[in-house]
Amino acid sequence: MNITEILSDPAHSRFSMELLPPLKGQHIDSIYRTMDALMPFNPAFVDVTYHREEYVYREVGPGLLQKRTVRKRPGTVGICAALLNRYEVETVPHIICGGFSVEETENALIDLDFVGVTNVLALRGDAIRSEGRFKPEADGHPYALDLVHQIVDLNKGIYLDPDLRNSTATNFCIGVAGYPEKHFEAPNPDSDLRWLKQKVDAGAEYIITQMFFDNERYFAFVDRCREAGINVPIIPGLKPLTTASQLSVLPQVFHVDLPEQLVKSVEGAKTRDQVKKAGIDWCTAQAEELLDRGVPTLHFYTMGKVDPTAEIARRVLGTVSA
Beta-carbon neighbour count of residue 115 at 10 Å? Predict the structure, then answer.
């Protein structure tokens, strides 16, 4: 079932989540343990991140370095297929521009279509850490907008090879990212919104926001989207703060602001458990207000930590989705 169909069903769960593939060399059992803990809340869908290659240099002799390509978290497509089969839950793989040629993108989408995955989240992706800024492949997409166009073409049966005959159309439901506090590379919020509207006009059917810690940022973002003619579902992304170090890490990595009240609560905590409780309490209050305002679903960035998300779901959803 497509995400938009799930969200339009009044009986659907008000809970969804993002999972990270396990590190290379680890078993998928870690994903299953997370799913087993969160399935009682009947997630509307699960999205699975994709992590592009990174480069490392290893010494192979005196003064000699060898450049190697590594992927620390492979397996996105396989995980999506496994979860769809094992739990019968809709899965949403991230499809990114970085590290893919347009042909590799097409082949990845064909693989997803073959295993029955019909929902995707189209993203540009991050820059390689060693490069500082995003660089597309020589024959790849520079922007998520281009990726949306390619997926829409496949949904029309239009493949890269113009000589194909009687090609089969896919049926992907396309999601894209939204930034209540604007993408850090955008020159201003209006420009950021203009790019988002282009993706929706091109065929994106829903938006999942970057994490935020101030609900007013989300509500204002939705209002601005509606004023701009963006009328697709806008799913709020939530992340419970769990460690004191995240006061600096989250703003640095995700370019988000943390409200002063939350900062003071964490700074005033005496133990790790108190820090965790402060973060969970804050996120719970966010979730309750968002549900009261009728959001499509609550989307949790688990980042490999299942307990905080499960605790918030228990508090907020109770027996509603059990």
Answer: 15
